[in-house]
């Protein structure tokens, strides 16, 4: 997975809601008015929140000792539930309850809950490093729910510190645990809700809105509803698609105030104030934040305070109220050591540097603070990068050690198994030596029988092939010529293919045998068959219809191609000369018949018989004769012409 971090100022803003659990990015689109109206309808319901636990009011308890005495009679489970309820709304009460729980005897599950609440309280107090250390301990817990919750808070703290390499690596561990069937539904919902927060921190606002939309059909607690609405406002601020009069912004403030989620409320206002500063609406920022400053300082949540001071300082500076700008800028800079990467703090440092001379302070001091903040940011990034590399190398080393150990164990088991198998084979071989010999003999006998059967079949095929062929010419003799030609002709007719027939007759062969002997006659027949086979097209059938007559059936061959074949055959026959004749020229003559079978409907027996009759009529004519039957016309001429002769279709 590759996450692209938005490098804009919005992507570097402070984490205002560290209690969310972040997870993975997803594709998103900008939300429309429909979901906003649905959210406003749900937020318009007024929910009264009572500051009671188990039906007992605590408003009259003022001192810490009175609180300890009051809650001392509560059960451990009730104390844990109450501490979890007020963990973000009443920091002092939460601290009192946690101190009381530390004195109790707790089981393993209760100890995990207490450790979680203590680490969370450190976040509220601004002690992020110690909180991160404690969540790291909880991340090793055997309970998968405790582990997932701790990893999620670690991720929030990494985002707060802008430690993106660690955050991205930790995100993979969270995604690996999230589909586990033992994850509690409430924790699963919180983790899904945190995806939007994670996207907001990285500047992927549209993707964040898409994830928040998925929560519309899930059951959410009052606080979760407040958080989801606040994060939607944060996303729309990042997209610059919201205003101070937007109904979602106003409804979110109303709802969160009703359920006493004041810290979240102040964070939403700070987000809008930051947006208004970017728009230059400084009077709105002053009119909104200044009346709320007392309540923000009373709650003593450092992040809300530094945002309020920084934004007020910037706003007063731009409206040329330099005294108030200096006042609130000084308060904001008092947090410079705790919030090294706060956007509002950085902006306040810039205006403080510009006002330093007019207020009698050295300008260099504030310039140094700006430079210090920037150097701290670079130092943090370099340190975290080195830490990521070190952890990655340690992780690879541990994986290699584990792999080598597993490989060694596997090889040992394989060696043991192989040794046992070899011993068993040796025992069996020793005990069954004669049995193995008997098996080998049986295999040889079976192989011999198989070879014999194969040889018999092969010999049968060879003998059958030889019986079908004429011994002298190695083409089909008359009976097989009629059989195979008839089969091929029937198949050609069924498929509607075109075909031609070539018949070659060696005229006056009897006279050649009488004058020169049967050896010359057989030689002439053999060479004529060889010439025909050399010029035969692919898939042609050749047969010796009678002693001096050869026939060749050619599918998919035109009359023009057949004329060329006939011409080549006659030319090669003219060059034949027996080696026993040195000066004597052996003279012989032929009759060729070329037939276009496209117009023939008779059987092959009748076609060949008619060819034999037509060629017999030309046998006594001198020279090479050519008979061409193309359709309904028949042309007979002297065949001394070459293969270029063309006869038009009748």
Automatic annotation (TrEMBL):
* Keywords carried by this UniProt record: Membrane, Transmembrane, Transmembrane helix
**GO-annotated molecular function:** diguanylate cyclase activity
Identify the InterPro entries for this entry: Diguanylate_Cyclase (IPR050469), GGDEF_dom (IPR000160), Nucleotide_cyclase (IPR029787), Rev_trsase/Diguanyl_cyclase (IPR043128), TPR-like_helical_dom_sf (IPR011990)
Spans through the membrane: 435-456
Q: Does the keyword Membrane apply?
A: yes
Matches recorded under Pfam families: GGDEF
- Which leading EC class covers this enzyme? transferase
Its EC number is 2.7.7.65
* Catalytic activity entry: 2 GTP = 3',3'-c-di-GMP + 2 diphosphate
Domain GGDEF residues, every copy? 497-631
Concerning SUPFAM superfamilies, the annotation shows: HCP-like, Nucleotide cyclase
Keyword Transmembrane attributed: yes
Biological process (GO) annotations? cell adhesion involved in single-species biofilm formation; negative regulation of bacterial-type flagellum-dependent cell motility
An example of a Gene Ontology cellular component annotation for this protein is: plasma membrane
Q: What is this protein called?
A: diguanylate cyclase
Q: Which organism is it from?
A: Thalassotalea mangrovi
């Amino acid at each position: 997975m590759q996450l692209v971090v938005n490098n804009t100022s919005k992507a570097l803003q402070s984490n205002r809601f560290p209690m969310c659990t972040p997870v993975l990015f997803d594709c998103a689109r900008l939300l429309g008015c429909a979901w906003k109206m649905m959210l406003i309808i749900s937020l318009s319901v007024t929910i009264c929140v009572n500051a009671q636990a188990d039906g007992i009011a605590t408003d009259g308890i003022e001192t810490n000792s009175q609180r300890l005495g009051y809650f001392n009679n509560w059960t451990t489970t009730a104390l844990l539930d109450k501490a979890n309820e007020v963990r973000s709304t009443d920091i002092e009460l939460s601290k009192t309850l946690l101190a009381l729980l530390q004195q109790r005897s707790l089981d393993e599950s209760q100890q995990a809950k207490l450790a979680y609440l203590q680490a969370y309280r450190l976040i509220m107090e601004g002690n992020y490093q110690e909180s991160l250390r404690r969540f790291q301990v909880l991340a090793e817990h055997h309970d998968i729910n405790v582990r997932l919750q701790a990893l999620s808070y670690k991720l929030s703290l990494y985002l707060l510190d802008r430690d993106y390499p660690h955050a991205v690596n930790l995100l993979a561990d969270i995604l690996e645990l999230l589909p586990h069937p033992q994850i509690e539904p409430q924790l699963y919902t919180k983790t899904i809700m945190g995806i939007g927060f994670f996207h907001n921190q990285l500047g992927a606002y549209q993707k964040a809105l898409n994830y928040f939309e998925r929560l519309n059909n899930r059951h959410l607690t009052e606080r979760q509803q407040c958080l989801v609405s606040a994060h939607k406002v944060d996303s729309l601020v990042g997209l610059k698609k919201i205003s101070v009069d937007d109904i979602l912004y106003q409804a979110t403030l109303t709802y969160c105030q009703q359920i006493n989620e004041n810290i979240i409320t102040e964070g939403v206002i700070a987000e809008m104030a930051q947006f208004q500063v970017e728009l230059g609406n400084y009077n709105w920022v002053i009119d909104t934040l200044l009346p709320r400053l007392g309540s923000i300082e009373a709650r003593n949540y450092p992040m809300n305070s530094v945002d309020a001071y920084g934004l007020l300082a910037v706003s007063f500076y731009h409206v040329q109220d330099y005294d108030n700008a200096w006042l609130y800028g000084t308060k904001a800079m008092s947090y410079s050591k705790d919030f090294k990467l706060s956007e509002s703090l950085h902006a306040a440092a810039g205006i403080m540097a510009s006002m330093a001379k007019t207020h009698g302070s050295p300008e260099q001091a504030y310039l140094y603070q700006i430079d210090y903040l920037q150097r701290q940011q670079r130092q943090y990034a370099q340190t975290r990068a080195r830490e990521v590399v070190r952890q990655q190398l340690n992780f690879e080393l541990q994986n290699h050690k584990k792999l080598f150990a597993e490989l060694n164990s596997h090889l040992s088991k394989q060696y043991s198994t192989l040794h046992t198998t070899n011993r068993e084979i040796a025992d069996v071989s020793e005990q069954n030596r004669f049995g193995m010999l008997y098996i080998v003999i049986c295999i040889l006998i079976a192989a011999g029988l198989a070879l014999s059967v194969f040889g018999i079949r092969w010999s049968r095929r060879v003998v059958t092939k030889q019986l079908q062929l004429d011994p002298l010419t190695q083409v089909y003799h008359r009976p097989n010529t009629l059989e195979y030609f008839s089969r091929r002709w029937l198949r050609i007719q069924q498929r509607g293919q075109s075909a031609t027939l070539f018949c070659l007759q060696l005229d006056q062969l009897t006279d050649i045998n009488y004058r020169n002997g049967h050896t010359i006659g057989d030689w002439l027949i053999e060479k004529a068959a060889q010439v025909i086979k050399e010029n035969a097209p692919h898939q042609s059938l050749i047969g010796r219809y009678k002693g001096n007559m050869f026939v060749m059936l050619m599918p998919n061959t035109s009359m023009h191609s057949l004329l060329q074949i006939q011409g080549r055959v006659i030319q090669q026959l003219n060059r034949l000369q027996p080696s026993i004749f040195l000066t004597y020229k052996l003279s012989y003559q032929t009759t060729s018949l070329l037939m276009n079978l496209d117009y023939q409907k008779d059987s092959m027996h009748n076609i060949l018989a008619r060819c034999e009759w037509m060629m017999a009529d030309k046998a006594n004519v001198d020279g090479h004769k050519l008979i061409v039957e193309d359709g309904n016309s028949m042309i007979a001429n002297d065949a001394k012409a070459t293969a270029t002769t063309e006869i038009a279709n009748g």
